[in-house]
Design brief:
It is built from 15 helices and twelve strands. The protein is an alpha/beta fold.
């Protein structure tokens, strides 16, 4: 069943390009698809841990995990099929592998190309929108630390718990795909995050041509800050530190606005996070160089603290696209 009502389908719909990966991207896409199907998810492909890492190593393909999450977030396939594709084998030689990762791996080997396989799976999984790997090459992350040393590999970077200054992709990830370039050129809104700053958000910006394409697009460039700092990646980071890291990899003024959570959480939940070395991302407006900061109670607490998909999507569209005004304009155009 489609996620949008008939009335919403008849309204003007924003064209959105989202950059990221992991659980943060899944939440964002799950919310956005309630309002529009004109979504392009540009997804990072540097994961080298777990099922994705094993398939990457054994088969020589880009890691499928983040792509799988995004495909399922935008999929209108039967709920049982979606659940099965996220299911992981609990034992045996396939221990830890998700069925969805294996499906993407098989499609890649059949088609001989990761990007072609992902495009074919749009049809199979009835995907509303597009999921585009930022690179179809097998690339790795390399982190450069403040002391001049480097660490290679996403898992090793995070587990090293060392402050990251910049990251790069090795080998050359190639140029931006035509799909991604065309989506960016016509976008009404470009969204970066939420997600791991150095291992989900920024890697997409390191592919040749991405930053230039985004700069040429007149749409708002919005960074959605994480709810909490991430141990091993953004320890002690305030909002200004996140922005500074993005600018080190792009250019000053690349982010035109920021969305940050200011909602409160139960004390026991925060204590559990603090025991793991995480804390809420502080919104230090005075150090953000005049970038507009839009805040709200956008997150929710459960087993983990994360953005509420519907709340985040509605906030983004009301703030940066003004759904009501566009819908009124569309209705006026239809009557004329």
């Amino acid at each position: 069943m489609k996620s949008m009502s008939t009335s919403k389908k008849n309204e003007a719909r924003p064209r959105i390009v989202a950059f990221g990966g992991g659980a943060g991207m899944f939440s964002l896409l799950s919310g956005l698809r309630l309002y529009t199907e004109d979504i392009t998810a540009v997804v990072t492909v540097t994961d080298d841990g777990g099922s994705s890492g094993l398939l990457r190593k054994d088969l020589g393909i880009p890691p499928p995990g983040d792509v799988r999450n995004c495909l399922l977030a935008l999929s209108d396939a039967d709920p049982l099929l979606k659940e099965a594709l996220n299911w992981r084998f609990p034992e045996g030689e396939l221990l830890g592998h998700s069925l969805g990762n294996l499906l993407i791996a098989a499609a890649t080997l059949i088609k001989g190309d990761f990007g072609v396989a992902v495009r074919e799976l749009h049809r199979v999984l009835k995907v509303a929108g597009k999921v585009v790997p930022s690179s179809t090459r097998k690339v790795s992350l390399v982190a450069h630390h403040a002391d001049g040393s480097s660490t290679a590999g996403e898992v090793r970077i995070v587990s090293s718990r060392r402050s990251i200054h910049t990251i790069e992709l090795r080998p050359d990830p190639g140029r931006i795909s035509a799909e991604a370039r065309e989506a960016i050129a016509s976008a009404d809104l470009c969204v970066f995050g939420p997600g791991s700053l150095f291992t989900s958000v920024i890697p997409n910006l390191l592919v040749r041509g991405v930053v230039e394409a985004v700069r040429q697009c007149p749409a708002p460039r919005v960074y959605v800050a994480n709810v909490m700092t991430q141990p091993g990646e953004t320890d002690g980071f305030a909002l200004s530190d996140h922005l500074a890291a993005i600018e080190r990899h792009t250019h000053p003024g690349f982010v035109s606005a920021v969305v940050a959570n200011t909602g409160a959480f139960p004390g026991p939940v925060l204590r559990r996070y603090r025991e793991q070395g995480a804390a809420p991302v502080a919104v230090d407006r005075e150090k953000c160089g005049g970038v507009p900061i839009h805040t709200g109670a956008l997150a929710e607490s459960g087993r983990l603290l994360h953005h509420n998909p519907r709340r985040l999507a509605a906030f983004l569209l009301d703030t940066f696209w003004r759904r009501t005004e566009h819908a009124s304009s569309a209705e006026a155009g239809a009557r004329s």
